[in-house]
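Please fill in the sequence for the structure shown.

STRUCTURE ENCODING:
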């Protein structure tokens, strides 16, 4: 239940000496209360610490456990692409975007998935976005051309076009499709199979298409990326300032309410006792 997730790792990587609960929301496109809940969960796991101070600023620091996780993630991000990385890239190319769907599709532990996703992001095969305490993933151009984007094009291209034949010649047999060129493997070769055969080339180099499909796939990816950006219209500077002002006001109200409520109650009790003593003294005089 308290296992590391990619969102935990992303929060740890964004934490620095100036980090605070009040400022974190704007960094991850998340409201103050959702950010406080998220940071509280990571604190329970033991990865960060939260220190309250006078003035409403709650500083966020990384614990020894969090530092150890960052060191492991940094080390694993430099490793070579493995079959699990290829499976993650294929899942992303198939349309899987969120953490829960990825974990269910691959049936692996959350911690292992977090480290491998971090590796793909670090090596430029994937990217991510955090919004409302949720993280979503997408392929970069490199990841698109290296895996899913090339494979998706197969269903849209005839066998004759794949082999470079004209209309006069017969379609090549199925076995001919799996004969790779001398320099690089064709797009229909699974990168996992290539790795098993002993090839150590980079995934993007292995799956480079010499028949023009790479440019075609990249064009389709750019079009889909533009459509995705249109769906998430960025906020105007005025709207961002207004949201930031509301978050700060809510943060201050929340802080003062919880910080000074005991003193206010104590003051009311003392006032009530004082008024009661005066009333009792006046009653005796009367």
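FILLED IN BY: designer on duty
SEQUENCE:
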């Amino acid at each position: 239940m308290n296992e590391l997730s990619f969102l935990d790792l992303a929060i740890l990587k964004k934490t620095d000496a100036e980090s605070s609960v009040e400022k974190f929301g704007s960094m991850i496109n998340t409201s103050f209360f959702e950010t406080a809940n998220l940071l509280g969960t990571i604190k329970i796991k033991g990865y960060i610490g939260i220190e309250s101070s006078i003035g409403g600023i709650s500083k966020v620091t990384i614990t020894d456990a969090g530092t150890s996780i960052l060191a492991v993630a940094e080390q694993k991000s430099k490793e070579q692409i493995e079959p699990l990385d290829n499976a993650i890239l294929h899942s992303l190319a198939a349309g899987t975007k969120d953490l829960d769907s990825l974990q269910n599709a691959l049936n692996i532990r959350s911690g292992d998935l977090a480290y491998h996703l971090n590796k793909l992001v670090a090596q430029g095969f994937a990217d991510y976005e955090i919004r409302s305490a949720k993280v979503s993933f997408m392929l970069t151009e490199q990841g698109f051309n290296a895996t899913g984007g090339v494979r998706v094009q197969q269903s849209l291209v005839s066998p004759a076009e794949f082999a470079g034949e004209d209309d006069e010649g017969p379609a090549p047999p199925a076995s001919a499709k799996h004969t790779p060129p001398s320099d690089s493997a064709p797009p229909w070769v699974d990168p996992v199979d290539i790795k098993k055969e002993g090839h150590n080339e980079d995934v993007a180099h292995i799956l480079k298409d010499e028949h023009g499909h790479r440019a075609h796939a990249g064009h389709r990816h750019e079009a889909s990326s533009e459509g995705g950006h249109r769906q998430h219209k960025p906020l105007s500077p005025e709207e961002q300032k207004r949201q930031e002002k509301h978050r700060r006001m809510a943060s201050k109200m929340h802080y003062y309410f919880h910080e000074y409520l005991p003193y206010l109650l104590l003051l009311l009790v003392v006032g009530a006792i004082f008024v009661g003593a005066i009333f009792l003294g006046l009653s005796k005089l009367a």
